[in-house]
Amino acid sequence: xxxxxxxxCLTVEAxxxxxxxxxxxxxxxxxxxxxxxxxxxxxxxxxxxxxxDVLCYTPGNGGLMPLLLIECKxxxxxxxxxxxxxxxxxxxxxxxxxxxxxxxxxTFWKDQNKIASVPFLPSYxxxxxxx
Length: 131
Known about the structure:
alpha+beta, tt1808, chain A, 6-stranded mixed β-sheet, 8 strands
């Protein structure tokens, strides 16, 4: 089975992780209001020689800057996912991170030298308001 990725405009193999990613992408460009043109899927990070699942940008400083980095997993992989997303963000420097594991999302960010989090993926407007 294959799925259509509306960001990359191509069909992809329906692996368990890809099913999760596509479900959340549809929520992002639908009710959560993320601009489709500001989303990147399977974005290669040359310094890491790895690709991130979803990266959302926002306009700023004369160009686009990372806003939200998302790592998707079909199942809960706990600390493994946390280490992976934190490692990616060392290079990307997105102010918001989201770990999606199946139907669950956890979004976190720095708030006055502490880590704050919510058990869901906020809307685009909610993240912009926190900047």
